[in-house]
Design brief:
The protein is 40% helix and 20% strand. Strands 1, 2, 3, 4, 5, 6, 7 and 8 form an 8-stranded mixed sheet that branches. Helix 2 packs across helix 9. The protein is globular and about 55 Å long.
């Protein structure tokens, strides 16, 4: 396996490369949250639509976590909502860029809790966390991988996880949904190949992927990312991502979210 990292344009550079590759099973893209959001966020997709891909495997799903500095006055999600209602357009939250899970997690909280927050996008999670730790922003809906070390060392306080159920990666941290009913945001990873790839080839890739997901070393690494392994048939990924597209499209539209 050759890993060819092609970042940029909200993941579209890498996905477009795979979409336009031969449909023979030798070109596979690891898709994530952006894959389900880009159809409603981007004015034009270079590959047309997500119909340019065939699903192979949903690798795993996991929450983001709402974090504040250790010395923050906010001790709970309820505290954040109360402060946002008292002073609209004052509380700031960082993200690793427009349209990312950290960004839309804040937009969903604002929509459901009927508050107004100020989004501050950065070029990556590193700079966002640096400014959060430095006091330039109030909070962040960070990925588990980005925030866990800072939470473990006491530099950040975790207020709530974005999944519907509590996360093993953040024991004792409540769900945001326990304060804001209906709230749910997940990070996820899945494998796609170009549309037109023969089904026997897809089935073979799915079987190989499911075997890899059971490897103890892989399980340890993915749990460190706060993810729960999925590993079902190709249809599992297709159904999940179609539901994610439908869920995020109105959030993007209602909030006038634009790509960077």
């Amino acid at each position: 396996v050759i890993v060819d990292n092609r970042p940029g344009a909200g993941t579209m550079i890498g996905t477009d490369n795979v979409a336009k590759s031969a449909a023979d099973g030798y070109s596979v893209v690891v898709a994530s949250f952006a894959h389900a959001v880009n159809p409603s966020l981007q004015p034009r997709l270079p590959y047309g639509s997500n119909a340019a891909f065939a699903p192979v495997l949903l690798i795993g799903r996991g929450p983001n976590v709402l974090v504040v500095r250790a010395n923050s006055p906010y001790k709970s999600v309820a505290d954040v909502i109360a402060a946002a209602r008292a002073k609209p357009d004052t509380l700031t939250y960082a993200s690793q860029g427009n349209g990312t899970s950290a960004h839309l997690a804040g937009e969903m909280l604002a929509n459901l809790a009927k508050v107004r927050l100020v989004h501050v996008p950065y070029k990556g999670a590193g700079p966002a966390l640096t400014d959060l730790l430095g006091g330039q922003v109030d909070m962040m809906f960070a990925t588990a991988a980005a925030a866990s070390n800072f939470v473990d060392t006491g530099k950040l306080r975790a207020l709530g996880v974005t999944s519907q159920a509590p996360s093993a990666a953040f024991k004792g941290v409540p769900t945001i949904a326990s304060t804001v009913p209906g709230y749910q945001v997940e990070s996820w990873y899945g494998l796609y190949v170009p549309a037109g790839t023969p089904q026997p080839v897809i089935d073979r890739l799915n079987a190989a992927g499911r075997k890899a997901l059971r490897a103890p070393e892989f399980v340890r690494k993915i749990e460190q990312e706060g993810l729960a392994v999925s590993g079902g048939p190709p249809a599992e990924l297709s159904t999940y991502v179609q539901a994610e597209e439908a869920r995020w499209a109105p959030i993007v539209k209602e909030n006038g979210i634009q790509p960077e």
